[in-house]
Amino acid sequence: MHDDSLPLNTPEPEGRSRRDVLRTAGVAGAGLGLGLGAPGSATAQAAPAAEESAEVGTSPARQGATMIGVPFERRSTVRVGIVGLGNRGGSMIDLFLAMPGVRVVALCDPVKDKTEKAAAKVTAAGQPAPATYIKGDHDYENLCKRGDVDFVYVATPWDWHFEMAKTAMLNGKHVGVECPIALQLDQLWELVNLSERTRRHCMQLENCCYGRNEMRVLRMAHAGKFGRLLHGAGAYNHDLRGLMFDPDYYEGPWRRLWHTRLRGDLYPNHGFGPVANYMDINRGDRVTHISSFGTPSLGLAEYRAANMPASDPSWKETYIESDRTISLVQTAKGRVIRLEHDVSTPHPYSRINQLGGTKGVFEDYPERIYIEPDHTNDAWGDFAAYADWDHWLWKEHANPPGGHGGMDYIMVYRLTQTMRLGLVPDFDVYDAATWTSPVPLSHLSIKAKGAPQQIPDFTRGEWRKERGGVDSEKPAEG
Ligand SMILES: NC(=O)c1ccc[n+]([C@@H]2O[C@H](COP(=O)([O-])OP(=O)(O)OC[C@H]3O[C@@H](n4cnc5c(N)ncnc54)[C@H](O)[C@@H]3O)[C@@H](O)[C@H]2O)c1
């Protein structure tokens, strides 16, 4: 699917009225009808125009009530259904099973072996055998209809995220989705509207927000250690060429195929989420617009030429995704966030994870810090010296099990704790939509030679209210 026929956005001149701004956002949104619905869904192969909507990108009238500050219902046991049991779902299940007060009651993946393997983990953990749903791509709808599921965790290919989040909420379930939560701006609005209407939380389970360094920097930022915040950066720079061409790693070539469909930042959330937290985005500041630039798309084709036999199906593919996208995001308070995405060239893994303010700067990969008055000699300082600033979750779980250095465990622990205790979740549908919005908007901006694209205010003005988030207080009970 190629979308060169889409309307391009134009730069925003100075001094335009709010109405003009919204109209521009609408134009940007209209360009997001990429016909990229879930495979097999009516929108999967639709022409771009079929999904265009005059409402897209504006702040449509609220249909329900805000989800900001809305606590979960308190429950002694959190009953979880998992949809998608591949690399991610098939390993995250171990963490759900390790949590206090959590039961995994239902599993869904059309690949029978994967579902059976996951079901065996549930019984091995001493829990009753879960219900299993293996009858094709839409059996997740039956999982979502169950009366004994409180929370649906979605770890499927991106094409499915929107439909699955929607179905979970329409069936009265809270839902947590892997990144990105959807691929189109109108879908993001629909998820916001549905969460508000159904009173269900719809969260993007951004594990990187729970990294040890990220949480330490967050606490230090909120304590003023970096002074008044000015800039930050986040990325997903991860050489995935080998995995994307490995016929056995992913369930089909779904991830590589996105490189034939969009040009922009396909995976902004890991870098954006933590920096957004540092800057209290949707909690006192908000992101207003994004300009993106993309390099040529050469890396995957070059890798294929060197590694794949002429008979490989990938030879039918044309890659358009920029090898590296670099986006600049401006906030209402004038701060600047740089986002990068590159999964198709060689380099060591990096999420950059940088934060700078009037008193100094932190940068990760490798971790280093320079803040006054501790550092004044133009040489980086040792971040390990700031371990006292660790978040209470990391103080209590010093060596968490599981992948990604333990942040997956910390995230699932905190998520299920907030559900058990009936607390407000650390992040909500507004954060999910904000962190994902660079996916469609960076694509549009690159096509428009870097022209700024308005980022919608998914909170409809409530971003001005200061409130808690990942920098939580330890609850009185555990
Ligand atoms: N947060 C992280 O650190 C992290 C890490 C890895 C992957 N992910 C995300 O997790 C998701 C899954 O990635 P993966 O690496 O596990 O991919 P994968 O291909 O290994 O697994 C996807 C699974 O979804 C199943 N599936 C496909 N369509 C389905 C449907 N209609 N109903 C039910 N199941 C269906 C597939 O059979 C497969 O088992 C992606 O969104 C990815 O971006 C996140």
Q: How would you characterize the overall build of this protein?
A:
The protein is α/β, with parallel strands linked by helices and 478 residues long. Helices cover 30% and strands 15% of the residues. The protein is built from 15 helices and 14 strands. The strands form two sheets. It has an eight-stranded mixed sheet. Strand 2, helix 3 and strand 3 form a beta-alpha-beta unit. Helix 2 runs parallel beside helix 3 and helix 5 runs parallel beside helix 6. The radius of gyration is 22 Å and the shape is globular. The N and C termini lie far apart (49 Å). Bound molecules: nicotinamide-adenine-dinucleotide (NAD). The site of nicotinamide-adenine-dinucleotide (NAD) has 25 residues, from loops.
| Radius of gyration over C-alpha positions, nearest whole angstrom | 22 Å
Strand order of the largest sheet: 13-12-11-7-10-9-8-14
DSSP E strands, number: 14
Classify the secondary structure makeup into a structural class.
alpha/beta
Helix % is 25-40%
Strand content: 15-25%
The ligands found in this model are: nicotinamide-adenine-dinucleotide
Shape label? globular
Number of helices: 15
